[in-house]
Amino acid sequence: MTSRTPRDSRLRLVPHQPIAAARRGMAPRGAKRPAPRPPEGTPLPGELARQARAQLAGAVRVARWATERGAPGTLSAEAAERAAAALGGTPEQVRAEWDRARLVGLVEPHGNTARPGWRLRAWDRDDTAVLRGWVALLDAWSLARPAPEDAEPAAVAEVVEAVPQLLSLLQLSAGPVQLPVLLDMLEQRVAELRTERCEVPYAAAPAPGGEGGEGGRAGAEAAPAAAPRAGDSPAAPRPDGGEPAAPGDAAGTLAALLDWALDALASVGSLVVRPVPGPGTAHDRREAVLTPLGNWAVWVKLEQICVAAQSPAGNIEQSAADMLRGCARLTPGPARAEYRAWLAARPAGSAVTELLDAARGDDALLRGLAFEALRVVGAPAEPAVRAVVDEPFLRPYALLWLAELEGGDPEDTLRVLTREEATWLWVDTAAAVADHGESPLLVRHLESAVQGTVPALLEEVRAVGHPRTVQVLVALAAAHPDPVLAKAVRRAAFQVHTGGS
Fold first, then answer.
1. Cβ atoms of 9 and 453 closer than 8 Å
2. H or E element in which residue 287 lies
3. d(Cα 166, Cα 246) in Å, to the nearest integer?
4. Which pLDDT tens digit goes with each residue over 248-304?
5. Is the pTM of this model over 0.85?
6. Phi and psi angles of residue 190, each rounded to the nearest 5 degrees, phi first
């Protein structure tokens, strides 16, 4: 699937209604729609979660070891050696599992230490959290295994953009697909991407006027802008202005990058590559097939359904956190009615304390909903809310809540936040969308950013230091239909993940 919309990186600045905007960005809370039935033979969610737990068992062990000992946010060589001695394995394996734990959201850096993420705390009891964690790893497959060192970054980016189409082909085929077929589709998709960027391949032979000179380039540019296959056409010009690769080099590069992509996808448990009998080279006599987890995940993405669904029944007897989860998929009116019923059943002081404790957790969805419930409490909650304005995770929400309480215009209350605080809030609400919402909603969440352009947003998001930045950017890149913007977002995620600039 390709984007057919103009690639304008400008963000549309929209009127801000602070808490309401955060609420819309966190979860689609309209009426439930019947979920499509998964493909025949798909394991039940409990079995899928068991497979995901087995796939991520090493990451969970390392995450628990590190967080129980107050390990630093970045695993040092000394810590990796101690973990390897305690858990078995090598320091390199420990560091690899640590990277997985970060990508899945099992650990989150807080200052100089790593704390358990909400998924880690829910790991043994919440199948939905486990499955969403594994899908987050699948979305970050290109970070799970480094690309070949000699590969051009532009070529790697093109393959990353093309992989969703390969996964769709595997899922729709309902069975194994031989590697030559996948390579053929990859070549076609890369050619499409280059054509969409108006990168017309150079002509095979120079036009009259001098070999490699201006006449040759002019003749090439005057050729019809067809979409040749990457394997049998001269390569497209490199984005950095260097010499284009020869046709054979381009085909060989794509074959090598296909091997890398399949290896990385296999390493996260989404597919299996296996040999098949028959004529041809050993390399060509291979096929790829999705695992049950991979087949389910690709089907979910194709159907754009939400895995997690919570029931609002019985909220009045629940803890604040459970009540908020139960209200997450209600529209604002019924949700406020639930908040009022829950508040009426307990003293205001203890209710406010419990709501703020829920907001301090690592689930950004609950943080926003907790302040919605505090809006129902109103003035009696003001002293407690003022007392938390210096807590980094609660400050943006508390300042907006106080501005509304003091009669500020909902359209203008966002002005009480600094640009850094507004950016932090954008990442936090985007994390809630990534954890609990549907992909199109995450794309629409771009509209609520205070920055005027996507590059400005990415620069400030990388600088703000939110612990969920990598997961948010990976999820946004996977969801965005525009390949140019998606590539920029993936690059930013990689730079944050590796500590680059």
1. yes
2. strand 286-290
3. 25
4. 556 668 889 999 999 999 999 999 998 887 776 766 788 999 999 999 998 887 764
5. no
6. -65, -40
DSSP 449-475: -SSSBHHHHHHHHHHH--TTHHHHHHH
Lowest mean pLDDT: which of 161-170, 227-236, 371-380, 418-427?
227-236
Which residues are CB-contacts of 224 (< 8 A; sequence separation ≥ 6)? none
Q: Please say whether the beta carbons of 364 and 468 come within 8 A.
A: yes
Instruction: Specify whether the backbone of 305 is left (phi greater than 0), alpha (psi in -120 to 50) or beta.
Output: beta
The C-alpha atoms of residue 196 and residue 244 are separated, in whole angstroms, by: 18
Helix, strand, coil percent values for the chain (each to nearest 5): 60, 5, 35
Question: Which is higher by pLDDT, 324 or 246?
Answer: 324
Cross-strand pairs, 275? 286
- In which residue are the tokens 């995901």 written? 52
Q: Which two tokens stand for residue 75?
A: 């695993």
Helix (H, G, I), strand (E, B) or coil at 174: coil
Strands 177-178 and 286-290: antiparallel
Per-residue confidence band for 357, with pLDDT thresholds at 50, 70 and 90 = very high
Look up tokens 């359209």; give the residue.
Answer: 411
Rounded CA gap, 163 and 185, in Å? 10
The terminus-to-terminus CA distance of the chain in angstroms comes to 31
Q: What whole-number distance in Å separates Cα of residue 438 and Cα of residue 419?
A: 27
Task: Give me the numbers of helices (H) and strands (E) for the chain, helices first please.
Answer: 24, 5
What b-and-e string marks burial along 264-281, b requiring 16 or more CB atoms within 10 Å of the CB?
bbbebbbbebeeeeeeee
What is the SS3 assignment for 74? coil
Highest mean pLDDT among 32-36, 197-201, 311-315: 197-201
Identify the residue whose tokens are 């590697």. 179
Could you tell me how far CA 86 lies from the centroid of its own chain? 32
- What sign results for the dihedral spanned by CA atoms 480, 485, 487, 490? negative
The amino acid sitting at 31 is A
Residue 404's nearest CA partner among 14, 16, 24 is 16
Q: Residue 266: which of 288, 242, 249 has the closest Cα? A: 288
Instruction: Return d(Cα 327, Cα 339) in angstroms, integer.
Output: 8
Q: Which residues partner with 116 through β-bridges?
A: 107
